[in-house]
Known about the structure:
8 helices; Nuclear Transport Factor 2, Chain: A; five-stranded mixed sheet; alpha+beta; 11 strands; disordered N terminus; single chain; 2 domains; four-stranded antiparallel sheet; Glutaredoxin
Amino acid sequence: MRKLLLTTLMLVVLTGTTTLAAAAPATLTKEAAIEALKDIQGEVLAVDPSEIPGLYLVSVKMQGRNIPLYLDASGTYMISGNVIDLKQRRNLTEDLFRRLNPVDVSAIPLDDALPLGNPQAQQQVIVFTDPLCPFCSQLHTVLYQALEKNPNLLFQMVLLPMQPNSQRISQTILCNKSLEQLELAFAGKALPEPSCDSDTLRQNQALAQSLQITGTPTLILPNGQIHAGYRPVDDLLKLINENSLPVN
């Protein structure tokens, strides 16, 4: 995404984006944003006030993705890059990009995932996890707490070894397709050597790279939104509820 945003900024510099009249309007309209960005090869989808006073969030479709840009009210100045909320320590641009570009959950292979919960549940959450990741272990406990409060959930555990010694352990777990062995690893118990050889872990790592997942635990929610990190049970259930699919 950063490379695409940088490309966008270079296009503005090279083509010399036409600015609007010197007198700035009170608000930035979609028509004004289209005029300001007319030399960029993209489609302006929406304009909304941003978290930053005086700047507007402009969603632009480019190269098949929706890119967040920031413009001032006059359409004269554009910010293309990462905007960080220092108090919350959040990358607002990254959050916006993920929100604008949900994952196609149906395209994620789950044949080797370890199911936890109700197989018939309408709301399915994909969890990228590492058997040697402390926060993954903590989240795993929370998943059971979530199921106690809402049994109509299914968590699909996808092994993504990120720690140096996780590869062998993850392979053992996959060979046996064993949720119990994953939980033994979370508890610090030793596992036997792998009894099979497969490309599943490599495929999981390639999938994570394509989704720009760089750490564990990471959740893919029912509607395709990606959220990283540990959450206590009530926060997790709230997140799932806010990103659930319509119930048939």
